[in-house]
Amino acid sequence: MKRLIAACSLMWAMAAGAHPSPQSEVLLESRPGGIRAELVLPLEELALALPGAAHASEAQMAAYLAAHIRPVAPDGRAWVVKIEQVRWLMSQRPADVVATMTLRPPAGAPLDRFTFANDAISHQVQSHLTVVALRSAPGEPSRVLGTLHYGQRSLQVQGADPRWWSGSTDLFRLGVQHIAEGTDHLLFLLTLLLPAALLVKDGKWAGFGGARHLLVYLLKVVTAFTLGHSVTLMLGAWGTVRLPEQPVEFAIAVSILFSAVHAWRPIFPRREGWIAFGFGLVHGLAFASAIRELQLSGARLVTGVLAFNLGIEAMQMVVILIAAPLLILLARRPSYRMVRQAAALMSAVMAIVWMSQRV
Question: Cβ neighbours of residue 106 under 8 Å, at least 6 residues apart?
Fold first, then answer.
């Protein structure tokens, strides 16, 4: 049992100490004689691959990106990469570097068939993901081509794929990764589950309430959180609701602090479902930002949002299936009070750190 408690504590510490890992996005747009590309890179991730990225000159950043963006013709000849502009969006959280560039094929090479490679971050950050999308002309709907990461740094680009479901598998994976590596979302969910197996007595968490009590709690909280974030994910992806990222990220940190206080001492007993729904609305706005930049529309947007949301739910279910047996084993023990309070305290500290970073 001591080993089990130690393992749980280690998992919590890893979750609290890990860092969110936003993905990069590349939007390729067909133009006469070439491809216009816009590359959005999260600055914190980029700084892990390129120390000093925040203070690099535009020329230095352009040279670095040109060395890591490699379009290649079917016969192996390299395309010409010209970095047109680099911008540092320091006022938003998380800060981004946005580069626009022109890609031109060598003489005689087809414009609609080439290999696109990009490892500007992933050659150093193995967990980093880049989503690549393509649209045939300005104003046309875009479609997801695939994702790049440490183990796959290039993909094939071919002419417009008419299938409305193309790219759905990659967006499903993106949803899974968003929860697996989006530490704040995961920490909120885990913290809210800490007292899931306990009863409330005289304003305090009391003993183990039984497996049925735990099942009802999990069903209520997870369903409410899913409903909440699904609503704002859809509205945010459609552009109906759009808020600046900074207050949304701050509100997510606040949701973790609320959950931590509740895990220490019940402040909203039997209303966890409503709280999960309310904060789910906030988390959904953050989820929406992950796919809004891809500029999908029509049927591709509907299937893309659905696939992304299914990825989120799949990863949440994995977390629940791991957490539920542990809660049943631990909540029966007197020592669980110490474990619960230690985990709540760590979550609260992490929430306060994030709040201070996101003001």
Answer: 73, 77, 78, 79, 80
